[in-house]
Write a structure and sequence with these properties.
The protein is mainly alpha-helical and about 300 residues long. About 80% of the residues lie in helices and about 0% in strands. The N and C termini lie far apart (about 60 Å). It is found in: Cell membrane.
């Protein structure tokens, strides 16, 4: 039987979650609200929200596809393909080098490098069974990526405005330098619709690199039975773009689908914030954290310099 205290906690959590669906609550505020609740009253629905977060994020991203034109997305993809490939390879190599310098656990180093190079938690989740990482190694890597990813959601739009970046420039920068798709979309959404379209397209194109990275890693670790976790929702995102581009009747309701997707993303960020625990933060060691910070600053600054000086 629930106590009054437990009932009150659940009520507060549900009320804040519902408020995140309203337009006056912006993504960073939702994320902050999740943090505050997690560190004060806790998350009374932790197991349920963990599953809901993954589903909501994927559904929101697919919904955003209804706001994009497939032909325009192809052009964006062509423009950022070489940049994406080179930044991923460079980040991975530098991350592994940092791991050797700091003598970070091999698996932890691989997970942090993969998460920073490609798409945060999704890449870590895909790589975990391949490298046979322990629960603690995965937890540490996810916590580091999550904390830095959350910081990026707050500071990237501010830096973008200070540097007077165009929406096209910011969208590309966010997709390259921010870890998780959730914060990439959240940050670019604050910057503008054009930034949102470019960031989402490039980030999801980037996420497909999980597949070749997983195959190569499996060869190095010599685990023939390793399963590769493919982000299938990316293909649904492409289908949504195709429908919006070539099926005229859907275009009348596309703006409403996109609006609902943006609100769903804001709710997702609240749930993500509520998923960070004190225990997870305590597990973060100094060396892995330093590796994660240096690697993130490296790719952020390098990609920024390339974007600002090459006319992207």
């Amino acid at each position: 039987m629930q106590t009054k205290n437990e009932t009150l906690k659940k009520s507060i959590f549900i009320i804040v979650a519902v408020l995140c669906l309203f337009p006056f609550v912006q993504p960073p505020l939702a994320l902050l609200a999740g943090f505050i609740l997690s560190f004060t009253i806790g998350n009374p629905f932790r197991k349920k929200t963990s599953k809901a977060t993954k589903f909501l994020l994927q559904a929101a991203v697919v919904g955003l596809g209804f706001g994009m034109n497939f032909q325009e997305a192809l052009e964006v993809g062509k423009t950022g393909l070489l940049f994406t490939a080179s930044s991923i390879i460079l980040t991975l190599l530098f991350g592994l080098l940092l791991g050797k310098i700091f003598k970070t656990e091999k698996n932890t180093s691989v997970l942090i490098s993969s998460g920073t190079a490609i798409c945060g938690g999704s890449a870590i989740a895909a790589m975990t069974p391949i490298v046979d990482a322990k629960e603690e190694e995965t937890s540490i890597s996810l916590s580091i990526i999550f904390v830095l990813n959350s910081i990026a959601l707050f500071i990237f739009p501010v830096l973008g405005h200070l540097l007077e970046m165009t929406q096209e420039q910011f969208g590309l920068w966010a997709a390259i330098a921010i870890h998780d798709t959730s914060s990439v979309v959240g940050a670019s959404q604050r910057y503008g619709d054009v930034a949102l379209h470019i960031a989402t397209t490039v980030k999801l194109e980037r996420a497909l690199w999980i597949i070749p990275l997983s195959l190569v890693t499996a060869l190095f670790y010599k685990k023939s039975g390793s399963k590769i976790s493919i982000p299938y929702f990316i293909f649904l995102y492409v289908v949504a773009m195709l429908i919006n581009t070539y099926f005229t009747p859907i275009q009348a309701i596309s703006p409403y689908i996109v609006w609902l997707s943006k609100r769903g993303l804001t709710l997702t960020l609240f749930l993500i914030g509520a998923g960070l625990t004190k225990e997870a933060l305590k597990k973060i060691g100094f060396k892995p954290l330093l590796q994660g910070i240096i690697l993130w600053v490296f790719i952020s600054v390098l990609s920024l310099l390339v974007i600002l000086n090459t006319g992207f």
